[in-house]
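Researcher: Here's my situation. A collaborator sent me these components and asked whether they could plausibly form a single complex. I don't have experimental data yet, so a predicted model of the whole assembly would be a useful starting point for our discussion.
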Amino acid sequence: MADKKFARESLTTMTEITFPNHTNGLNNLMGGWLMYWMDIVSAIAAQRHSESIVVTASVDNISFAEPISLGDVVTLKAQVTRAFNTSMEIHIEAWAENVLNKRKMATNKAFFTFVALDREGKPTRVPEIEPETDEEKALYHSALRRRQLRLILAGRMKPDDANELKAIFDMD
Ligand SMILES: CC(C)(COP(=O)(O)OP(=O)(O)OC[C@H]1O[C@@H](n2cnc3c(N)ncnc32)[C@H](O)[C@@H]1OP(=O)(O)O)[C@@H](O)C(=O)NCCC(=O)NCCS
């Protein structure tokens, strides 16, 4: 396996349609269905990057900016932002499209973290990420802060050790 891979090599897209069994009492897509689709599309992106079996370790910052209506086509896009040792952060974006009136809107974003496992089910190293575009570079650099915050909240990192995260609040 390569030591480094381009972020774009993990790009994964998925298209679904909102059927009645996906909706809540308001005839909008139920959040749980969207999270299910996000989990699948991001797992595939993580598998493409790591060329391994992966498991979801953390789910962060899922936003629901707009409701998605019954009948809307939902497109999800996932790509690895940065890989650490055995874990990878994936950025997911979703859009809803009414194909009848050609209305398309950005609806959701999230960051998922996956861990690659070896044949014995133990965490295993993954290739680094080489970002290319301005957006990929921005996501790559901010990924370190998001990782520090989630590891602090998970009780896996001491706040004192989170230098990049602390730098945001440094008022000097
Ligand atoms: C995720 C899991 C493999 C981590 O195992 P572990 O014994 O804690 O392993 P480690 O301490 O070596 O950590 C492995 C990686 O997981 C990351 N990790 C663990 N918990 C995390 C969390 N809450 N948030 C983000 N990353 C986390 C660590 O930072 C480490 O990443 P790194 O190697 O890039 O630094 C383990 O907790 C697990 O199997 N969880 C259940 C996963 C699952 O069932 N998901 C749903 C179905 S797919």
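Model: Some features of this prediction you could bring to your collaborator: Residues 31-50 form the longest helix (20 residues). Residues 55-58, 84-87, 113, 115, 123, 150-151, 154, 156 surround coenzyme A (CB under 6 Å).
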